Amino acid sequence: MQINWEDTVNQIFGDVLTCPRCARDEGELIIGYSRKPSLNKFAPRHRNCPRGDECDARKLITLCEGCAKLEGLAGSPVGAGEAIETYMLDCRRDLEESLDYIAEYWRDDYELSAEDLDAPLEEIDPDVFREETQWRHRLEEEYLRYHHEFRERKRRIPSAGWRSEYVEEIRALGYDTLLGE
Questions:
Q1: 21-31 core/surface letters (b: 16 or more CB in 10 A; e: else)
Q2: What 3-state DSSP class applies to 133?
Q3: Which of 98, 99, 121, 172 has its CA 20 to 30 A from that of 162?
């Protein structure tokens, strides 16, 4: 089953929860994290992953209670509001990881000479920097979609100060962001 993420988000904001495995509408879904590649198809935020069905990255999965038991997914029952907030927080986590990577963690992937220790990633490996920037851009667009939907429905943005902190950190590194000035 291929999940249409746009439809999924629209349904969740419309307080309709549909299990991606059995396609039944539910009042609550079980939400949890899993590294099992067999659950990739039930991870809507995992779409377009370059590793596809073989990916063993930790993913946010939502299934109805019966399907969660059948698939061995441990998690907590959530309603539509909690589900979309969890997706937003998961998106933030991915943005923070991307920020950490371009700020520091990329250095672990290279044998750097003494003169390259202070060089930015875009000088050491422009292709990897471009890929990471595209990934971060996609995540920022996703985050803005959540933000917009919360505002449209006059709902409180969870931990609203996070956005300004992220913008300050990414700007301090000298990079642009879609999340603000």
A1: beeeebebbbb
A2: helix
A3: 121
The H-or-E segment that residue 144 falls in is helix 126-152
Q: Which residue has the tokens 């995540």?
A: 139
Beta strand extents in the chain (DSSP E only): 17-18, 25-26, 29-34, 59-63, 76-78
pTM of the model: 0.83
Distance CA 172, CA 92 (A): 18
Q: What are phi and psi of 121, to 5 degrees?
A: -55, -40
Interstrand relation of 76-78 and 59-63 (parallel, antiparallel or unpaired): unpaired
User: Are residues 61 and 31 in contact, defined by beta-carbon separation less than 8 angstroms?
Assistant: yes
Encoded tokens for 73:
């997914």
- Indicate the SS3 state at residue 106: helix
The pLDDT tens digits for 28-44 are 999 999 988 888 888 87
Instruction: Spell out the alpha helix ranges (H) of 30-125.
Output: 65-71, 80-103, 121-124
Q: What percent of the chain has pLDDT over 70?
A: 88
**Hey, which residues does 61 pair with through a beta bridge?**
32
Residues counted in the chain: 181
